């Protein structure tokens, strides 16, 4: 399976394809304005890439289906004075820089309706309105949460969106759902699942979870990798099942920290010995106020550390390679020190785990 971080390369492929497209379109558009005829001659998906298949990435691929949440290239004529473009009645954003008389590059809004709709794209320019028939389908699935450290044979629930006729893979092992709705899938965990990635495929595409199975330290509650926790200041308030917010699953850790206070989690060395399979620590963090934390390992807050910033209005995903914190031969503890410099903060921590090599 592809490393999930490879999906960041899609942006580069998209920008490259857009640059080539606009160069070609501008070369063919010598009038400097509209051609006088509003028409669509073809539609291409900007990037096609199945995350379960190596080497299949393609750009600018002709299609007769629109999947919401993706970039498309609309080719034709009369687009120079584009006012709006909509799919099944919902307008999608377009950047005027990516519009010529012969082409439109558009990100189809993820919320575009797709069920029992008219399957129609509408383009409005100074020349008039063009209604174009094309199949509109949902985005690829989104994965909100699932038990990351299950046991073989467990019946688990995957939550997310757009689970339309879904299938589930544990690594390369395909598992048919026991039951499913648009937002939940129940599946049985197969044997030999550990340290593989879970993925969900719907009618539009495949999404791979960012966490490797068996890699989680905190997942709505402490897991088998969690040994115990330590507080620098016992007066700090902690809720290990805070349910009003979460970046993964339904719960997180709420830590009401005083200024410069610290919090540590020790790994359960008696039942977790696979640290050599990992290359980094990951976690998501959010604060009542935007701030900073000093992340450190093995109890050494003075040497093996890295200071990271976080926001108050959204979760910040942090990934810290072992190479940034001294390349430990053994990882026994991870910790955080409040580092905002403004008298303390309420800090939320979630999705705490390790990253596979």
Describe this structure in words.
- Pfam families: TIG (PF01833).
- It comes from Flavobacterium ginsengisoli.
- This protein has 357 residues and is mainly beta.
- The chain folds into 3 domains: 134 residues, Immunoglobulins (Immunoglobulin-like, Sandwich); 68 residues, Sandwich (Immunoglobulin-like), CATH 2.60.40.10; 141 residues, Galactose-binding lectin (Jelly Rolls, Sandwich).
- It contains 1 helix and 30 strands.
- Strands 20, 22, 23, 25, 28 and 30 form a 6-stranded antiparallel beta sheet that branches.
- The protein is elongated, with a radius of gyration of 24 Å.
- The chain starts with 8 loop residues before the first helix and ends with a strand.
- The relative contact order is 0.11.
- The N terminus is likely disordered.
Structural class: mainly beta
Mean pLDDT: 90
CATH class of the largest domain: Mainly Beta
CATH architectural type of the largest domain: Sandwich
**How many E-type strands?**
30
Computed Rg: 24 Å
The amount of beta strand, in percent, is over 45%
Sum this structure up briefly.
With 357 residues, the protein is mainly β.
Outline the fold blueprint.
Layout lengths: L8 H19 L11 E10 L9 E5 L2 E3 L3 E7 L6 E4 L2 E2 L2 E6 L3 E5 L12 E6 L2 E6 L1 E3 L4 E4 L9 E7 L5 E4 L2 E3 L3 E2 L3 E5 L8 E5 L4 E7 L3 E3 L7 E6 L5 E6 L9 E6 L4 E6 L10 E10 L3 E7 L7 E6 L5 E6 L11 E6 L6 E12 L1
Parallel strand pairs: 3-11
Antiparallel strand pairs: 1-2, 1-4, 4-8, 5-6, 5-9, 7-8, 9-10, 12-13, 13-17, 14-15, 14-18, 16-17, 18-19, 20-30, 21-24, 22-23, 23-30, 24-29, 25-28, 25-30, 26-27, 26-29
Protein name: IPT/TIG domain-containing protein
Pfam families: TIG
InterPro entries: Galactose-bd-like_sf, Ig-like_fold, IPT_dom
């Amino acid at each position: 399976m592809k490393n999930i971080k490879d999906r960041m390369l899609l942006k580069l492929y998209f920008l490259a394809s857009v640059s080539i497209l606009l160069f070609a379109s501008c070369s063919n558009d010598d009038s400097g304005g509209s051609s006088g005829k509003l028409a669509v001659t073809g539609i291409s998906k900007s990037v096609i890439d199945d995350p379960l298949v190596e080497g299949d990435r393609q750009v600018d691929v002709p299609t007769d289906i629109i999947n919401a949440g993706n970039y498309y290239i609309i080719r034709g004529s009369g687009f120079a004075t584009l006012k709006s473009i909509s799919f099944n009645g919902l307008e999608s954003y377009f950047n005027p820089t990516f519009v010529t008389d012969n082409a439109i590059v558009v990100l189809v809004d993820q919320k575009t309706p797709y069920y029992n709709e008219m399957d129609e794209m509408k383009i409005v320019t100074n020349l008039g309105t063009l209604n174009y028939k094309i199949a509109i389908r949902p985005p690829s699935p989104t994965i909100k949460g699932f038990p990351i450290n299950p046991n073989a044979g467990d019946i688990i629930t995957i939550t997310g969106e757009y689970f339309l006729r879904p299938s589930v893979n544990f690594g390369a092992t395909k598992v048919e759902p026991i039951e499913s709705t648009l937002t939940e899938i129940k599946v049985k965990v197969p044997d030999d699942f550990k340290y593989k990635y879970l993925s969900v495929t719907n009618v539009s595409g495949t999404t791979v979870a960012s966490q490797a199975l068996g890699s989680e330290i905190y997942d709505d509650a402490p897991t088998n990798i969690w040994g115990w926790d330590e507080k620098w200041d016992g007066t700090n308030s902690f809720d290990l099942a805070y349910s009003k917010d979460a970046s993964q699953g339904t719960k997180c850790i709420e830590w009401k920290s005083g200024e410069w206070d610290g919090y540590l989690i020790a790994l359960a060395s008696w039942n977790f010995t696979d640290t050599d399979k990992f290359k980094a620590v990951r976690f998501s963090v959010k604060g009542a106020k935007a701030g900073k934390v000093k992340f450190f390992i093995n109890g050494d807050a003075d040497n093996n550390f890295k200071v990271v910033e976080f926001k108050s209005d959204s979760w910040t995903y942090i990934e810290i390679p072992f190479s940034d914190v001294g390349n430990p031969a053994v990882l026994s503890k991870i910790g955080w020190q409040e580092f905002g410099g403004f008298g303390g903060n309420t800090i939320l921590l979630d999705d705490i785990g390790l990253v596979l090599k």
